[in-house]
């Protein structure tokens, strides 16, 4: 897998997590711990994307 393909895959995963977080936030009584974990995953992906594209 090329670097650009890898970064694009990470971006797709980040977008999917964003959608999942938004969906969870729309439901009353959603699991706050799950939302926190999803946000942490998003942050890790964002940091990895930035690390790979900074060079």
Features:
55 residues, mainly alpha, 2 helices, elongated
Percentage of β-strand residues: under 5%
Order of helices and strands: HH
Task: Profile the largest sheet.
Answer: none
* Alpha carbon gyration radius: 13 Å
Low-confidence stretches: none
- Structural classification: mainly alpha
Mean pLDDT: 95
Q: What is the tally of helical segments?
A: 2
Q: How many structural domains can be distinguished in the coordinates?
A: 1
Count of extended strands:
0
Provide the helix percentage.
over 70%
- Overall 3D geometry? elongated
What does this structure look like?
- The chain is an all-alpha fold and 55 residues long.
- It has one domain (3-53).
- 84% of the residues lie in helices and 0% in strands.
- The protein is built from two helices and no strands.
- It starts with a helix and ends with a helix.
- The model has no long low-confidence stretch (mean pLDDT 95).
